[in-house]
Amino acid sequence: MIAAKVEEYAFGGLVAAVGVFTLVDATTIAGRDDNVVGPRAFPYAVGILLVVTGIAAIIATARGKLGQAEDAEDVDENVRTDWLTVAKLVAVLVAHLVLIDVIGWPVAAALLFFGAAWTLGATWWRALPIAVVLALVVQVVFAYGLGLSLPAGIFEGVPFLDG
Amino acid sequence: MLMEGFATAAQPEYLLYALLGVTLGTAVGVLPGIGPAMTVALLLPLTYTLEPTAALIIFAGIYYGGMYGGSTTSILLNTPGESASIVTALEGNKMAKAGRGAAALATAAIGSFVAGTIATVLLTLLAPAIADVAVKLGPADYVALMVVAFTTVAALLGSSPVRGLASLGLGLFIGLVGTDTLTGQQRFTLGITTMADGIDVVVVAVGVFAVGEALYVASRLRHGPIEVIPVGGRWMTGEFWKRSWKPWLRGTFIGFPIGTVPAGGADVSTFLSYAAEKKLSKRPEEFGKGAIEGVAGPEAANNAAAAGVLVPLLTLGLPTTATAAVIVAAFQSYGIQPGPLLFTNNGPMVWALIASLYIGNVMLLVLNLPLVKIWVKVLQIPRPYLYAGILLFAALGTYAVNFVVDDLIVLLIIGVIGFFMRRHGYPVAPLVVGLILGPMTEEQVRRTLQISEGDLSALVTSPFAAVAYSVLAVLLVVAVALRLRRRKSEVTV
User: Fold this and answer.
1) Residue range of the domain that includes A51
2) Where, by residue number, does the polypeptide cross the bilayer (chain A) (predicted)?
């Protein structure tokens, strides 16, 4: 409960902080200041909205009105948040975006699918072939079906894979 | 006009696109974790090679299909979720457990068809008339409409108006990033060159819906086997029709008007329809234990509302749900601005789109009644693969927008924000609606003030705008009053 409250304060604070940033950064936008509304007015309004709602969310939290976590079919309401899984998934996504330009999309994509499925509890020897096949199929479909070439990376020059 | 639309939409090529759309739509409706908004967003970059009519027919199919598919999940899956179908889960799930799954699925599918078709007829009749009126609206009137739309979406959706408005604010902020269209000034780009073009709608929608949802589900994933209730019983009985047809019609006429006004979309209509059926039923004691009326009415209302949402979308360019907002983005990516001029400037395209809605509904009835067994299989996809697939296609769809890695960084950041929003009751729809409507609103405000030479009162002096703001004020007061009353009754219970 206490952890949830701290998180709520932090998120409300983040909203308000984005608002403050909006207000401060808006002053640096160059613009005419005659009687016609320039490029700053709307940012000021948005900044105020964010600051007010962020603070209001913090006040609501302080008064015990916590936000209701969303429900979904696959969400188990009775288990605690598994932060490790979330961290692993974020790491897998980071690895994916770093690797695209290094070893090419097909390998980076296969790693993303495999990493995510494995993290979520799939058996590794089943997830691995699915990941490889899926990535290669998408690569080929993109190159030949849609005419969009994803970076082939290590497969550069390989027929079918390098669009 | 509609007949010409049918002539276009009935061409084999377009029929194929419609079939593709409704099939995809049903699939994403059935699968937990992905919805129509995200699917349309993901397909946006892939459909740039298609002509606009074809792409929009696919998107409309996904939109209608998602509504059908959702009911299958809530009836057959042992774990209800998603507020729009939660009422169906209440009764439909009980029916399935009692061995009457076939009847529950059938009343949902046929009800969706009846409601979808009637509502599409209403759309056909109403939309051109409203567009005729809307042509006469000035920029100040548009500002009023947009303010009403996003305030109601933000304040009425979800359980906490403050968090809804905060979500709207975040969306408006993201919409500000980039180059100001009127003066060419860069705003909030932090000096990063790729930010000068703004943050792409696809990246934001995929981030909050796909990545945010995947991370959120992963944080509290339900492990163990997926329990799907076997489909049992017969449905082609006299009693089935007798008990279903009235709720279908009532649901349609409750859902359609609610869809057309920005008041929270499908959710509200299902709750109202459920309450109405419970009140009118001769057997209220069956409610909560598997009353077929409790599936028939809300499912019809749900689909009628979905069609209703298209009225302001096509005639005013106003999106009132997240999916509608993404569809507006789709229109814009083809250089088409939905609004009153749509019917005059892009007549053949709009009518083909509307005709495809009729055709799509028939396809959906076939897909969801005799072929429902296929979707039951889809429902059983092991969750690690499902969510890994969602993440893969989220990354792919985002990367395919501009083929730059920077977009993936933005995707990840927005995904993490979406994750925390779900944890703390911030609805994500206002963010997406704000992102689309924000830049449009700013442009209209500045146009109004340019005409009035800076006189702020120009924003409220137009009679139409004044009425719109008054209606908004009344709506908000009523909403607050209802909320207080509900809280009071909860306290006394």
Assistant:
1) 2-62
2) 42-62, 89-118, 124-146
The reply to whether residue B392 touches residue A57, judged by beta carbons under 8 angstroms, is no
Q: What b/e readout covers B446-468, taking b as 16+ CB neighbours within 10 angstroms?
A: bbbbeebeeeeebbeebebbeeb
Question: Quick one: A54 and A93 in the same domain?
Answer: no
- For residues A134 and A98, state if they share a domain: yes
Q: What φ, ψ does residue B187 adopt, rounded to 5°?
A: -130, 130
Picking from A15, A44, A113, A12, the residue whose alpha carbon sits closest to that of residue B187 is A44
Continuous segment of H or E residues that includes residue B178: strand B178-179
ipTM for the whole complex: 0.94
Q: What residues of chain B, 43 to 72, have a C-beta less than 8 Å from chain A?
A: 46, 49
Cα B477 to chain centroid, rounded: 25
pLDDT per position as a tens digit, A13-50: 999 999 999 999 888 887 665 556 778 888 999 999 99
Q: Residue A73: which of B46, B82, B188 has the nearest Cβ?
A: B82
Regarding whether A116 and A58 lie in a shared domain, the answer is no
Q: What number of CA atoms fall less than 13 Å from residue B361's CA on the CB side?
A: 22
- State the residue for tokens 């907002």: B325
Same-domain pairing of A87 and A132: yes
Instruction: Tell me how many helices (H) and strands (E) chain A has.
Output: 5, 0
Structural domain count of chain A: 2
**Placement of tokens 């042992």 in the chain:** B78
